[in-house]
Design goal:
Blueprint: H1 2-18, E1 19-28, E2 39-42, E3 47-50, E4 56-62, E5 67-71, E6 78-81, E7 87-91, H2 109-119, H3 121-124, E8 131-143, H4 146-153, H5 158-169, E9 173-184, E10 188-198, H6 209-212, E11 222-225, E12 228-231, E13 242-252, E14 255-264, E15 273-280, E16 285-293, E17 301-310, E18 313-331, E19 334-348, E20 363-365, H7 374-380, H8 387-403, H9 405-416, E21 419-422, E22 425-428, E23 433-436, E24 440-449, E25 457-466, E26 471-481, E27 489-499, E28 527-540, E29 544-556, E30 562-566, E31 572-575, E32 577-590, E33 594-598, E34 601-606, E35 611-623, E36 626-642, E37 648-659, E38 672-674, E39 686-690, E40 698-710, E41 721-732, E42 740-741, E43 752-764, E44 773-783, E45 795-803
Parallel strand pairs: 1-7, 10-20, 38-39
Antiparallel strand pairs: 1-4, 2-3, 2-5, 5-6, 8-9, 8-19, 9-10, 11-12, 13-14, 14-15, 15-16, 16-17, 17-18, 18-19, 21-22, 22-24, 23-24, 24-25, 25-26, 26-27, 27-28, 28-29, 29-32, 30-31, 30-42, 32-35, 33-34, 35-36, 36-37, 37-40, 40-41, 41-43, 43-44, 44-45
Helix pairs in contact: 4-5
């Protein structure tokens, strides 16, 4: 037995001496930037590996290996002696790189390879699995390139030289997060930020940047980079759109890795990507990915992803991005670079999730996230901080204290939430100025208490004055909440303000300039109302929010409309006031909607499925001492979807039914966004109807748009697209014993039909402008029974305005 052990250990010693491990980093010879996924191989021995997202590598070489070959698409091949395979190894970029055009006598072999990858992608897509969980460490740096620093260092300007010296030792900004992320089919996603550190700040901000720049998986048909969406090279039959070319082959034990470049085919007009795919023949899975937009002017972001096998399953291991902000320069020729590194570990596929693990928030911040010790950070970092990164923390932390960066960030967050803090009081920006065709310009002010006074109680008020109606409005509110994210709230409100006849009682969509919903701008008829309201809101399951409410409203009619009541002498008396009291419940349901904790509140990021709103209310109308009981039923569905070719489809359905006898202002009017004084398109509405021209006690309407053509001009300001728009509606007046007059309106019992065509993107403003948007023109025409007068009376030509936030 002892001889057997002796022989065994002798064998291990021989193996160890016959192989050696070499470590190093591969960088660009000019910029010194690390090169990810460089092929490092000894082809004749079948030995090889690739560098990781940081350019680092480790390769075990047998004794007989003398030279190692380094290959990378776009760079010159380099042979390195085994003894020199250490430290930083530089690769030189090829002198010229033309767009490749290759003609194959038969089927392109790369297309056959991609067909196998696409056939197997559901097996490897993380979001096709039943469940998984992992921990992820993210690091974000904001800096300038080494080449820019070198240029400033030799400048004749002493200020540039001093700045170059500072930047050689520090980055501009740095942030780290460590979080746990889990998923359960179908579509339940949750990320909890366990640790967050930002240079110069105690405020937990920017933790969402690293994971918002790129998707976790490259197997999705639509790839979203920094908010922009692109057609994936892995979409079905992608070889009709993309040109694939096998650039290199790496043999690794029993596996073969093909390096494939991809770019859009000549003449193909779509939002495309270009880059490199490393494909492992072990189940034809992605091993490495490099991708960037083909339009570098609008999105100069490059991503890199590395996959590895975990328990016989392929899964992402490292994610990397680099965003070059060429229009934001600290000095001439020194644009800002944002660099992100993400490392995934502790991957498991057999988790035991509970319902409360998915509480409706997609991203949530742990209350102790900003209080972690240095020892904790040292234990969870994927790699140690460089001296430059340590200097960045030291310098920026001290600078942040001296200029009170946390206070300034608190103000920035308040601007996003339309509140500016002054001590324990917030100035409400949404109350400062508004506009509609009834009031004209409306100026006012609003204040409320903030978290600095109480995290559970908010007290506020406002006043405003309309220059057209020459009337003052005012109100106040008291909100009681359960804590930091206000998931359970009780709102008490009083207001002496305006009420718009015909509008839905479902909580309003987020309107205003930056949401493309300009409906409120077109309002010409509003009544003065004294309103008391109470509502308790709470979450129901993961995707629903419920509100139970009660309202009492006294209304004063402001135009010629009158309600008539017969007195004891058989004389009809006109009245212009009435009151409404009702109680009800509303429900908002958004399946798999992403909700992110940001700026101390919950932000709804996106909804992949239709958003449903329902409301029921039972009430009593007091009209000249007569009590009219009624029931309201209302529903609204909104849906936005990108097709695989990135054409956008949008739809809104609305249905309302009033069972009872109430005045016209309490009935329903189609969403109408036309007026001779305001020729701008708006989301979801009849673009040729005047507000208040149609009313009904029941009303059903549908609005849809489809962007069916997008021209890929690769221009930063001219990006035209064609959108078809269709609207239809129907309604009736079911009242039988109600007498009113003085106001002319129609009932849409014969239907409303309207079609239009919008040319968006004739001019696109820069992302650096106050409101980045696409401008164009739209033409709309009303037809059918609602068509009236000359043809030009049913035609509307409008300015198109589409924000691009």
């Amino acid at each position: 037995m002892k001889y057997s052990l002796f022989i065994f250990f002798l064998f291990l010693a021989v193996i160890g001496q016959s192989q050696s491990v070499h470590r190093g980093r591969i960088i660009d010879s000019k910029t010194n930037e690390p090169l990810a996924f460089v092929n490092i191989s000894v082809p004749e021995l079948g030995v090889g590996t690739t560098s990781d997202v940081n350019g680092s590598f480790a390769i075990r070489l047998p004794k007989e290996a003398e030279k190692v070959r380094l290959t990378y698409v776009g760079y010159e091949t380099k042979m390195v002696l085994k003894g020199n395979l250490k430290g930083d190894i530089k690769l030189k970029r090829k002198a010229s790189q033309l767009k490749e055009v290759e003609i194959f006598p038969g089927k392109n072999p790369a297309d056959s390879l991609m067909e196998l990858v696409i056939d197997n992608k559901d097996k490897h897509d993380p979001f096709k699995k039943d469940q998984f969980a992992f921990d992820i460490y993210n690091k974000i740096l904001v800096t300038i390139s080494d080449s820019a620093i070198d240029s400033m260092a030799v400048s004749t300007d002493t200020n540039s030289q001093d700045f170059a010296k500072h930047m050689s030792e520090h980055d501009l900004f740095m942030a780290e997060t460590y979080s746990k992320k889990w998923y359960e089919k179908p579509g339940k996603v949750k990320e909890k930020i366990l640790a967050n550190r930002v240079a110069g700040l105690d405020n937990p901000s920017f933790y969402w940047l690293a994971t918002n720049m790129q998707p976790l998986s490259f197997y999705e048909p639509i790839i979203e980079l920094n908010g922009s969406k692109y057609v994936s090279p892995l979409v079905k039959r992608s070889w009709n759109q993309y040109l694939f070319i096998i650039k290199d082959t790496l043999y690794r034990n029993q596996d073969t890795v093909f390096v494939v470049s991809y770019q859009p085919k000549s003449g193909k007009d779509f939002k495309s990507l270009e880059g490199i795919l490393s494909i492992n023949t072990n189940e034809y899975a992605l091993e490495n990915v490099i991708a960037r937009s083909t339009n570098h002017l609008t999105n100069n972001l490059r991503i890199q992803q590395k996959y590895t096998r975990v328990k016989e399953e392929w899964f992402p291991e490292q994610l990397n991005f680099e965003l070059k902000l060429n229009t934001v320069q600290v000095e001439e020729g020194a644009p800002i670079h944002m660099i992100g590194r993400s490392y995934i570990n502790k991957v498991v596929f057999d988790t035991n999730f509970r319902g409360r693990d998915f509480n409706g928030l997609t991203v949530e911040l742990d209350e102790e996230a900003t209080k972690k010790s240095q020892a904790y950070w040292d234990s969870i970092r994927a790699d140690t901080l460089t001296q430059k990164e340590q200097n960045t923390y030291t310098f920026t932390d001290s600078a942040g204290e001296s200029v009170n960066l946390d206070e300034k960030l608190f103000i920035l967050e308040s601007l996003v939430t339309q509140r500016v803090p002054i001590k324990f009081i917030d100035i409400k920006l949404d109350k400062l100025m508004e506009f509609n065709l009834y009031e004209g310009l409306r100026l006012g002010a609003g204040i409320s208490t903030n978290d600095r006074l109480s995290k559970h109680i908010e007290l506020g008020g406002y006043f405003a004055y309309g220059f057209n109606d020459k009337a003052w409005k005012y109100g106040g509110h008291l909100t009681l909440s359960e804590g930091r994210l206000n998931r359970y709230t009780l709102d008490l409100e009083y207001a002496r303000d305006l009420h718009s006849p015909g509008y839905s009682n479902i909580p309003a969509r987020m309107g205003g300039l930056i949401s493309n919903d300009l409906t409120r701008f077109y309002i010409r008829w509003q009544n003065l109302s004294t309103r008391y309201r109470a509502e308790f809101k709470f979450p129901l399951f993961r995707d629903a929010t419920v509100g139970v409410f009660g309202t009492y409203r006294q209304n004063e009619i402001t135009n010629n409309y009158r309600i008539y009541s017969e007195n004891e002498s058989d004389v009809w008396i006109p009245f212009q006031s009435y009151s409404i009291g009702e109680a009800g419940v509303n429900l908002r349901y958004a399946y798999q909607e992403e909700k992110v904790e940001m700026f101390n509140t919950v932000v709804k990021a996106k909804s992949p499925y239709p958003v449903l709103h329902l409301q029921y209310a039972k009430g009593i109308g007091q009209i000249q001492q007569a009590d009219n009981y009624y029931d309201r039923y209302e529903a609204r569905v909104e849906f936005t979807k990108k097709t695989p070719r990135l054409k956008q489809f949008r739809m809104m359905l609305r249905g309302s039914y009033l069972d009872g006898e109430l005045p016209i202002p309490e009935m329903y009017s189609p969403v109408s966004v036309y007026d001779p004084e305001l020729a701008v398109t708006s989301d979801y509405g009849f673009q040729t109807l005047l507000q208040g021209s149609y009313f009904g006690s029941e009303l059903y309407e549908a609005h849809a748009s489809f962007e069916f053509v997008k021209f890929n001009t690769k221009s930063d300001w001219f990006n035209p697209s064609l959108t078809a728009v269709q609207s239809a509606g129907w309604g009736s007046d079911q009242r039988e014993n109600f007498t009113d007059g003085g106001f002319i309106y129609k009932t849409p019992e014969h239907g409303l039909f309207e079609s239009g065509l919008i040319i968006n993107g004739l001019y696109t403003s820069s992302s650096e402008t106050l409101i980045p948007a696409k401008y164009g023109v739209g033409t709309f025409y009303r037809y059918g029974a609602s068509n009236s007068g000359n043809w030009y009376d049913n035609l509307a030509v409008k300015l198109s305005f589409l924000t691009t936030f």
